[in-house]
């Protein structure tokens, strides 16, 4: 491991088509946010950084027109309809539910996924190499690395037998990932306890429920609403003395015990490459979906020390970063 920048496995092609706005025009980039303005700020900033790297200046080449669902996924249809009335050149979306909401109302405006779970298996695109339709972007491979969280649990809690899994039932991709975790745990004598939590609900009450169940650790199935509330989630986990292994290194940075996955800032910054290509006239149907091929393991030693967890040398050696 020890590769800090995500390397992406597929290189997008710029093919001329009839979708984009001309680069010299001020394009409207619609942003359909899953969470809150505050929780999304770091990732929106990463996208803006990416746009600068692509030579696109906000206000001169594009304007960002953002709407936020505040973790209420049922709001996506209304929000995307509102965005479409403003004539966007492209729509930026994250979670499967928001991609589907956008696809239901437009077959012409390009849709760019950012860190979306299993885009082919979720039926969002035909294939990674030739997505077809008006949707392309970046996946996160959460469905392929889910079993790694069971492995991490075994390493950090070698005597543990009960692993809690936080799952958002509003996210269509969550159930298949949960089943992969269950299958992996079953072969290793680990009991999985799934806890449903919709991102807009009371997180403190959820942690009280989790604490009563006394799991040896808690892992999270990839969902942007959890990422949006990562600081609150990690603080509550420490308060209730529950080690949490997040699906991205951002969780360890926020105070959870560990995080493994592709850094989400990298994915948001990388999504600007798609916007540039689309504004230059590329056809989204022909722009391959990119997947990260390297991931970061980050361990928060301050948190593990506070929880009385000894980190094996094998994990510390393998970690890309250790927060002391």
> What composes the largest sheet?
7 strands, mixed
- Strand % is 15-25%
Q: What's the CATH topology label of the largest domain?
A: Rossmann fold
Q: What is the CATH top level name of the largest domain?
A: Alpha Beta
Q: Which spans of ≥5 residues are poorly predicted at pLDDT below 50?
A: 1-23
Domains, number: 2
Number of helices: 12
Whole-number mean pLDDT:
91
Shape: elongated
> Could you give me the name of the CATH homologous superfamily of the largest domain?
Response regulator
The SSE string, one letter per element, is EHEHEHEEHEHEHEHHEHEHEHHE
Oligomer: single chain
Provide the structure class: alpha/beta
Distance between the termini: 19 Å
Share of helical residues: 25-40%
The strand order across the widest sheet is: 7-6-8-9-10-11-12
Question: Which key terms come to mind for this protein?
Answer:
five-stranded parallel sheet, Rossmann fold, 2 domains, disordered N terminus, single chain, 324 residues, alpha/beta, seven-stranded mixed sheet
Tell me about this structure.
The protein has 324 residues and is an alpha/beta fold. The chain folds into two domains: 27-141 and 263-286, 3-Layer(aba) Sandwich (Rossmann fold); 142-261 and 296-323, Response regulator (Rossmann fold, 3-Layer(aba) Sandwich). 38% of the residues lie in helices and 19% in strands. It contains twelve helices and twelve strands. It has helices spanning 37-53, 76-84, 96-105, 142-156, 174-186, 203-213, 224-228, 230-239, 249-253, 264-279, 301-306, 313-318, and strands spanning 27-33, 62-68, 90-93, 111-116, 135-139, 162-167, 191-196, 217-220, 244-246, 258-261, 296-300, 321-323. The strands form two sheets. It has a seven-stranded mixed β-sheet. Strand 6, helix 5 (174-186) and strand 7 (191-196) form a beta-alpha-beta unit. Helix 1 (37-53) crosses helix 10 and helix 4 (142-156) runs parallel beside helix 5. The longest helix is centred in the first third of the chain and has 17 residues, at 37-53. It is elongated and about 60 Å long. Mean pLDDT is 91; it is low at 1-23.
């Amino acid at each position: 491991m020890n590769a800090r920048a995500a390397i992406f496995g597929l290189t997008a092609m710029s093919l001329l088509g009839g979708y984009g706005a001309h680069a010299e025009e001020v394009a409207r980039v619609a942003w359909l946010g899953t969470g809150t303005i505050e929780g999304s700020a770091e990732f929106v900033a990463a996208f803006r950084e990416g746009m600068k790297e692509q030579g696109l200046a906000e206000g001169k080449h594009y304007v960002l027109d953002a709407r936020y669902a505040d973790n209420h996924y049922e709001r996506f249809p209304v929000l995307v309809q509102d965005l479409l009335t403003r004539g966007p050149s492209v729509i930026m979306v994250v979670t499967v539910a928001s991609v589907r909401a956008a696809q239901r109302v437009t077959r012409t405006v390009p849709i760019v996924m950012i860190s979306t779970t299993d885009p082919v298996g979720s039926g969002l695109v035909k294939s990674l190499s030739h997505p077809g339709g008006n949707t392309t972007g970046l996946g996160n491979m959460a469905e392929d690395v889910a079993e790694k969280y069971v492995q991490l649990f075994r390493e950090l809690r070698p005597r543990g037998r009960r692993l809690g899994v936080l799952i958002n039932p509003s996210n269509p991709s969550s159930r298949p990932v949960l089943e992969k975790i269950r299958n992996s745990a079953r072969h290793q004598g680990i009991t999985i306890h799934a806890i449903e939590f919709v991102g807009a609900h009371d997180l403190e009450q959820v942690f009280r429920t989790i604490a009563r169940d006394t799991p040896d650790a808690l892992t999270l199935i990839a969902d942007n609403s959890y990422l949006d509330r990562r600081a609150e989630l990690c603080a509550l986990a420490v308060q209730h003395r529950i080690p949490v292994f997040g699906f991205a290194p951002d969780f360890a940075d926020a105070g959870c015990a560990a995080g493994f996955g592709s850094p989400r800032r990298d994915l948001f910054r990388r999504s600007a490459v798609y916007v540039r290509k689309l504004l230059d006239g590329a056809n989204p149907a022909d722009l391959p979906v990119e997947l990260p091929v390297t991931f970061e393991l980050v361990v928060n030693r301050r948190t593990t020390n506070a929880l009385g967890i000894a980190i094996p040398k094998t994990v510390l050696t393998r970690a890309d970063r250790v927060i002391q």
